[in-house]
């Protein structure tokens, strides 16, 4: 036994022995009517001192003395019951004897617990065989409940002892107050018969005081022993882990290893069949191959679950087996609630649902090709960097796919292309992924979320583009605006573009009379260029304007300015002044 436990036990026993010795001295000072009780006590001729006894021996001797005292009281009660005159007195004496017998049994139990160091209640307690649930569930949950009780046994025992100590501590002052009241009445009483009855009451309460003090000492002693034996939290946690991995942890680990091993073997066989079987290696899997895959997934779940439960069953660990069965019941209940979702996933696996393998589907506003339909489905967009995603099959529930043409684009542009967006941004595509698109805009990187980039309706200039330039000629050239000016302007602009090195990139050029405007006769220049010069989009626009002005200067064509709006504003101002003069 550790030294600190010995010291604690010794202190508790000294306290208990002192209480017992004090009670013995009080017992010897009672009136002569109770002299018979003191005479039968076996008082040693030479009593050993407290320091000569070990704490355990002292505690056991104190309990024996209490047992002898109670036994003598029982003998006295047996004599009293023979001389009782009324049935009420006999019933009262029988009840007192029953209480003394219970106290005697409690002392005997305390004696055995202290001498053996074993908690008899926990030692003799047997697992419950009957529960309130049905018999089928009892066999499963019974060991689990017993395990939970064992886990919480120590805290519950400490709490029980604390409540017991508090209970006796509350009762002891009540007994002392009662004795004080009785002794006060004894001093005031003069009649002999009244004094005898009061002395009987005093004796009974003295016995209760001794019993309560003894029970309080024993309970406090047991509580101190348990608290002294309590280990630090880290050490307790380590002990719990050590015990767990020696028994249940080992069983759980073996069951998990068996489950993983069986799963890997089945997975290897499935992949081996895919490598060997030509039907499985075909680009488009048939319905029967898909059906075999679905059966494989179901059998894999069933076999691995059975293996896991079988290992727990063989190891005899009914607690973990019960937990596993409860988990499976919860899983089955969840599956019942989600049965429509599971059915849709099965149809997807069989390629019989709204999304089919090899077709085109819009997922998160982007087009994807369904590469494969499995537990984890693969979607691919060849125009995006990192355009291969893998997602759970359930994510495709509610989507619709369709067959696609080989020439359908998967994205409006590619990297290195030049695009013009609806917000006026013109730049070169540096990178495009499923999440973002980066443009080189005015020497800096401008990033768009991919979905927002698509909402900008990008115009891909790298796949050829056209420029529209509107040019105004004065009304004095109205006679030649429909034939001579367009022809001359086209030849001159075409020659200038070839001179500047755009001859091969100029796909077509046309000049047309557009309309008679408010202050000019408008001519439109339509030039189509190859995508190779898309980076010069704005330069070419400005170049066409410049070339048109140069041709006008060469031929003396007047370029008008907007006059009608100014003239109209002046006329309105003059009319307003005239009307004001008229009013005045």
Topology:
Blueprint: H1 3-28, H2 35-39, H3 55-83, H4 87-116, H5 120-124, H6 135-151, H7 153-188, H8 192-229, H9 233-246, H10 248-276, H11 278-281, H12 287-315, H13 318-337, H14 339-349, E1 360-363, E2 366-372, E3 376-380, E4 388-392, E5 401-402, E6 418-420, E7 426-432, E8 436-441, E9 444-449, H15 450-455, E10 459-460, E11 465-473, H16 484-499, E12 506-516, E13 521-529, H17 537-555, H18 564-583
Antiparallel strand pairs: 1-2, 1-5, 2-3, 3-4, 6-7, 6-10, 7-8, 8-9, 11-13, 12-13
Helix pairs in contact: 1-3, 1-8, 3-4, 6-13, 7-8, 9-10, 10-12, 16-17
Note down, in words, how this protein is organized.
- The protein contains 18 helices and 13 strands.
- The N and C termini lie far apart (126 Å).
- It is of the alpha+beta class and 584 residues long.
- The protein is elongated, with a radius of gyration of 52 Å.
- It folds into four domains: 3-133 and 142-230, no CATH class; 242-337; 418-460; 464-564, Alpha-Beta Plaits, CATH 3.30.70.
- A hairpin with a 7-residue loop joins strand 3 and strand 4.
- It has a five-stranded antiparallel beta sheet with strand order 4-3-2-1-5, with no helix packed on it.
């Amino acid at each position: 036994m550790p030294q600190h436990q010995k010291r604690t036990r010794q202190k508790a026993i000294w306290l208990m022995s002192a209480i017992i010795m004090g009670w013995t001295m009080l017992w010897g000072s009672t009136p002569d009517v109770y002299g018979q009780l003191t005479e039968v006590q076996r008082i040693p001729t030479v009593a050993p001192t407290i320091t000569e006894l070990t704490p355990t021996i002292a505690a056991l001797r104190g309990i024996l003395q209490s047992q002898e005292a109670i036994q003598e009281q029982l003998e006295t009660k047996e004599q009293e019951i023979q001389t009782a005159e009324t049935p009420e007195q006999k019933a009262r004496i029988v009840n007192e004897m029953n209480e003394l017998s219970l106290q005697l049994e409690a002392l005997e139990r305390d004696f055995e617990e202290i001498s053996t160091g074993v908690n008899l209640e926990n030692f003799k307690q047997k697992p419950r065989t009957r529960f309130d649930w049905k018999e089928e569930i009892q066999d499963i949950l019974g060991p689990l409940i017993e395990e939970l009780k064992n886990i919480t046994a120590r805290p519950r025992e400490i709490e029980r002892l604390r409540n017991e100590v508090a209970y006796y501590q509350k009762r002891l002052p009540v007994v002392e107050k009662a004795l004080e009241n009785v002794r006060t009445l004894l001093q005031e009483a003069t009649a002999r018969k009244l004094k005898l009855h009061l002395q009987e009451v005093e004796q009974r309460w003295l016995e209760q005081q001794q019993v309560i003090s003894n029970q309080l000492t024993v309970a406090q002693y047991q509580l101190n022993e348990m608290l002294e034996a309590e280990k630090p939290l880290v050490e307790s946690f380590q002990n719990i882990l050590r015990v767990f991995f020696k028994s249940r942890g080992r069983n759980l680990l073996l069951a998990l290893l068996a489950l993983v091993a069986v799963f890997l073997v089945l997975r290897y066989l499935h992949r081996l069949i895919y490598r060997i079987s030509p039907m499985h290696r075909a680009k488009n899997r048939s319905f029967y191959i898909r059906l075999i895959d679905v059966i494989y997934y179901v059998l894999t779940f069933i076999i691995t679950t059975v293996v896991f439960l079988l290992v727990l069953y063989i190891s005899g660990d009914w607690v973990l087996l019960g937990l596993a069965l409860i988990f499976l019941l919860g899983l089955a209940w969840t599956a019942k609630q989600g049965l429509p979702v599971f059915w849709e996933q099965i149809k997807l696996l069989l390629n019989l649902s709204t999304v089919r393998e090899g077709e085109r589907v819009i997922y998160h506003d982007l087009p994807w090709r369904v590469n494969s339909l499995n537990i984890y489905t693969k979607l691919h967009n060849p125009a995006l960097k990192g355009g291969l995603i893998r997602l759970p099959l359930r994510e495709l529930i509610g989507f619709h796919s369709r067959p696609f043409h080989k020439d359908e684009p998967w994205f409006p542009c590619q990297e290195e292309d030049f695009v013009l967006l609806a917000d006026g941004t013109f730049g070169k595509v540096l990178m495009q992924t499923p999440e973002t698109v980066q443009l080189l805009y005015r020497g800096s990187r401008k990033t768009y979320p991919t979905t927002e980039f698509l909402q900008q309706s990008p115009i891909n200039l790298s796949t050829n583009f056209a420029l529209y330039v509107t040019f105004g000629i004065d009304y004095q050239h109205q006679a030649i605006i429909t034939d001579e000016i367009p022809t001359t302007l086209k030849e001159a602009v075409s020659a200038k573009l070839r001179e500047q090195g755009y001859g091969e990139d100029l796909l077509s050029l046309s000049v047309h009379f557009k309309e008679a405007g408010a202050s000019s006769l408008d001519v439109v220049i339509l030039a189509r260029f190859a995508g190779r010069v898309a980076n010069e989009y704005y330069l070419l626009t400005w170049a066409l304007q410049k070339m048109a002005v140069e041709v006008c200067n060469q031929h003396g064509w007047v370029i008008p300015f907007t006059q009608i709006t100014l003239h109209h504003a002046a006329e309105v101002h003059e009319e307003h002044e005239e009307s004001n003069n008229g009013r005045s």
